[in-house]
Amino acid sequence: MTMGEVDHARNGFDPHEILTDFDYGEVSKDASGRTVREYEFIVENKEIEIAPGLFYPAWTYNGRVPGPTIRATEGDLLRVRLVNSTDHLHTIHWHSIHPAAMDGIPGAGEVGPGEEFTYEIDAKPFGTHLYHCHSVPLKMHIQRGLYGALIIDPKEGRPDANEMVVVMNSFDTDFDGENEIYAVNTVAFAYAVRPIKINAGELQRMHVVNITEHDPVNSLHIHGNFFNLYRTGTSLVPHEFTDTISMGQAERHMIEFTYDTPGNFMFHAHQTEFVELGWMSFFEVE
User: Fold this and answer.
1) 3-state percent helix, strand, coil for the chain, nearest multiple of 5
2) Distance CA 60, CA 195 (A)
3) Do 133 and 220 have their domain in common?
4) In what order do the strands lie in the sheet with 217-222?
5) Per the confidence metrics, is the pTM higher than 0.90?
6) Where is the domain boundary, 153, 181, 205?
7) Tens-digit pLDDT profile for residues 149-184
8) 280 lies in some domain
9) Would residue 2 count as lying in a domain?
10) What does the DSSP 8-state code read for residue 78?
């Protein structure tokens, strides 16, 4: 595998910052006392570096891939203003429970060039979710980078943990229908070059989203440990105790684990091709 340094400053985002960059929006209360969270997403075309010296013509929400990680509590009201600064039609489609008019598909919340639209949805159900553009051709809009995580916390909360978001994505750099780069949070080998530092004995909570295009299944395996799996994050009780999960596109889960001893531990896809093409990472347990 080839590793090196990507110019994250040029990209305007850093995979290490994306891990924990939760966007709670501009917060206010309505007349009933309900929490309202407001966001502005600007769609813009942007060339990004996805591996050292390898650039990709991305379509982005707010200049980054994945887009901002929206975070709210179940029952909050979300208002998201989408501004389209490109020459293509775009939307935000929500993997949540919402009215048809807010679905973010052609004919319901689609935004033309130079136009804008405000989505208004209830934050429900609690769990690890996602959003993405649903304009046609859908495959093109997703593979270009228009997607992100939507995390809705349960009202009763969860135990304290070190939380992070991992969006499994891929890039078809020559647009031939096959991926040349696989990654988590966009940059190939980002967490192999700079491992994710975590503390021994501390509970880790990872929100995992698969938005890989062209491949029907992606996976995640951690070394030297097992994790509790909460499917779609919609339960307070784990569904399984394992060290590997396979996920279809748009599938997402929450996992929790604790490392008891220090050292470097791999985590990666369990498809060897994906590993060799960028989806390889490390935890540095201190």
Assistant:
1) 10, 45, 45
2) 26
3) no
4) 196-198, 280-285, 263-268, 217-222, 244-248
5) yes
6) 153
7) 999 999 999 999 999 999 999 999 999 999 999 999
8) yes
9) no
10) E
